[in-house]
Amino acid sequence: xxxxxxxxxxxxxxxxxxxxxxxxxxxxxxxxxxxxxxxxxxxxxxxxxxxxxxxxxxxxxxxxxxxxxxxxxxxxxxxxxxxxxxxxxxxxxxxxxxxxxxxxxxxxxxxxxxxxxxxxxxxxxxxxxxxxxxxxxxxxxxxxxxxxxxxxxxxxxxxxxxxxxxxxxxxxxxxxxxxxxxxxxxxxxxxxxxxxxxxxxxxxxxxxxxxxxxxxxxxxxxxxxxxxxxxxxxxxxxxxxxxxxxxxxxxxxxxxxxxxxxxxxxxxxxxxxxxxxxxxxxxxxxxxxxxxxxxxxxxxxxxxxxxxxxxxxxxxxxxxxxxxxxxxxxxxxxxxxxxxxxxxxxxxxxxxxxxxxxxxxxxxxxxxxxxxxxxxxxxxxxxxxxxxxxxxxxxxxxxxxxxxxxxxxxxxxxxxxxxxxxxxxxxxxxxxxxxxxxxxxxxxxxxxxxxxxxxxxxxxxxxxxxxxxxxxxxxxxxxxxxxxxxxxxxxxxxxxxxxxxxxxxxxxxxxxxxxxxxxxxxxxxxxxxxxxxxxxxxxxxxxxxxxxxxxxxxxxxxxxxxxxxxxxxxxxxxxxxxxxx
Length: 581
Fold this sequence. Notes:
alpha+beta; nine-stranded mixed beta sheet
């Protein structure tokens, strides 16, 4: 049957981001990923990074559970308790003294969870699986909700369902003497998804009994039919025999659904509300993979010195390579001076044999961005309950890379343009301070919301995005990724698979590098929407590509397309002597 679990084969990059439990659409139906037929992979360095990131996520989940329990007790008091007389009589005085009689006592040293009680995931708890070309991904049809477009018959199908012919229409047509042409049920690809923890459930009215895949009417015992409309607010179910409706006349209560992670929180008017799951159409964009990537050369972690040594080795081994100095030597002196004035680039060169390992270890959701902050989202991880371990999936590739080292002095001047010259700080001082801030866990949400607090890093990130987008456009392939070496002020544009001379080599052939940098400068300088930070028209890139930081510089994950400042990046790329906006 179409809803049974089945294997399909897609590219390894597609498989990597169609993570476990993701709901997405194929040519034949909406499906949910179950698992991968992937081989075990042994890499201690990757295990250690995954263990650190999952430990942080599990601590967030534990803190949320404790806060949820505390607020649940407060909710019970609000709904079922009686306000204390003392509070009623002396409420003004209590407010002045900032005393809340309903508040739980402040945590004491004995009531706080001890460090040993906090989740600590070890590298040995991580089960790595490598996804290669030909790896099969196992999916099942999801959601299992099917509807008849003619009569609204609504059914949850499973392996016991004999076919997808609408039973209500078939029964009616057989009574009329018809023996063929029965309408078929189609999948209703709507789901409930939690904007906090990314949990997915099928679109079923809350507290409705289900028998043999049918939604049973509590009033007469028959089953409900579904009437979907263009807007979610108009969706309803109606009994086919009695006049019972769901939702009933008042505001769609039967559609609302609370996730198990739901927590009481204040709304805009200061009232208390329960966070709800959203209704959305199935698509891979409802969630995104939590991932990071490592770059290495012969098992050495990437650094500027390692990259320079690889470049020298390439020349010694006769590997086709390129260096900016050689390009500039072919220009006359006025042209060389123009290039130096035009672009803030100290050095650029090609290297070979760069190994990139991209790791997916969990997922989060895009939904409800205005309601739930990134720091409050609960990551989901891939658990193997049988062995009590965590799964992570790895794609490893080897290819060339283009290294672009920017002028630190010009970068620092650009982000401090409004500061008097005597008070300006060096690039090294600025970047050290910003890296320290980026690694501070309490500042995570503030860093996401206010990239202007990290102008140097946000500018480098935006330049890296512009470089990546133009490389894809110029070469015509999307097999690239980018990384920032923050301490060195360098951007690495690397191939995510070995594509020979069809990759970054093209960006340095002839006037290719000059074309590349000209377009990077134009992209940053002239956004059609004149955005401050970045948008889809200028420096936003596909989420799967946005993994800008190396874990030995920034220890934690940040969401895709976060911490970007297009205008500051444009100022950094502005030619010497050109005035500000």
